[in-house]
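Handout, section 4.2: multi-component inputs.
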Amino acid sequence: MHVIVDLCLVPIGVGTSVSSYVAACHGVLEKAGLTHTLHAYGTNIEGPWDDVMAAIKACHEEVHRLGAPRIHTNIKLGTRTDRKQRMADKVESVRNKGTSKPS
Amino acid sequence: MHVIVDLCLVPIGVGTSVSSYVAACHGVLEKAGLTHTLHAYGTNIEGPWDDVMAAIKACHEEVHRLGAPRIHTNIKLGTRTDRKQRMADKVESVRNKGTSKPS
Amino acid sequence: MHVIVDLCLVPIGVGTSVSSYVAACHGVLEKAGLTHTLHAYGTNIEGPWDDVMAAIKACHEEVHRLGAPRIHTNIKLGTRTDRKQRMADKVESVRNKGTSKPS
Amino acid sequence: MHVIVDLCLVPIGVGTSVSSYVAACHGVLEKAGLTHTLHAYGTNIEGPWDDVMAAIKACHEEVHRLGAPRIHTNIKLGTRTDRKQRMADKVESVRNKGTSKPS
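Output:
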């Protein structure tokens, strides 16, 4: 089961600057060999369900290890059986519908 | 690693009535033996990380099996290392702060 | 436009205990006269779009005023034009599909 | 109050292809003059709270008008009083922490 995920992990109890923890998560995803893209409010990841979920767990473990006593995470997650779809396809599909010239 | 989750699974491509799919997920959670509570916009679940994640995967598999070609899921997920906290504690903690008589 | 919302507001930069801020939000919702229900991972609210959104803004203002320098909020939000649905209907609808005896 | 938002609007009851509705929302955001960036699992938007929220409401109205009887939307939303931060800053901040060479 292929999954496309939007991951947003918020460390709590470590002050207001959370970017170093997000960077650590990117290291985890990199190491896991998963396709991932950083955006302004999270990270998109795609791959086999078990691999993606194992990486998310590893992110939590790493962020706790780096000192965050509490983590709040949001995940958006899509699966489909009707056809294969990659992250790039989703963006392309909207662009082809003409975002610049909506009806 | 104990996790508290808010799960909201939205089947896409099966019309506007989604309650039978949500009910099927509750069967999956029940079978998994996990503590879970239905609310008006999702289901709260708690337990060991791997068990909860395995159950969420089983929900996706079951909802696809029941005919939904596409699923969009939201997960809120909390872990903490500073102390044990159960779902009931979270509600209790807010109530003790006096929701009825806020300053 | 009637809306059903799941609101989860996370104050950042005020330590790991966030329940007093959540309690303050409940005061805001109470004062706004909106139907709302606390659950283990958020608060469900329903009402006219503008009233609910004004209350969410007032929650942000109040939590900043109480000292949180940063807030991360998750909102799930549902609208429908096919029929009226209340929060209680959603729970009832799943229950009637037989969560205890899924196929 | 400046807000950074991740918006993910899911039309329900219109089949599995939702990209034309997402494209219509981009038209709404474009018309509102708000900074917005499409990614693989949503759209990031930033601006004054009231303007962003008015645009999200206009998206719901437009998607219903285009025929979707039901909409499920996820919003992640961040505000802060400690300093000004733009969407581009958030991505930059993580990159500067060295995502390519995590410890």
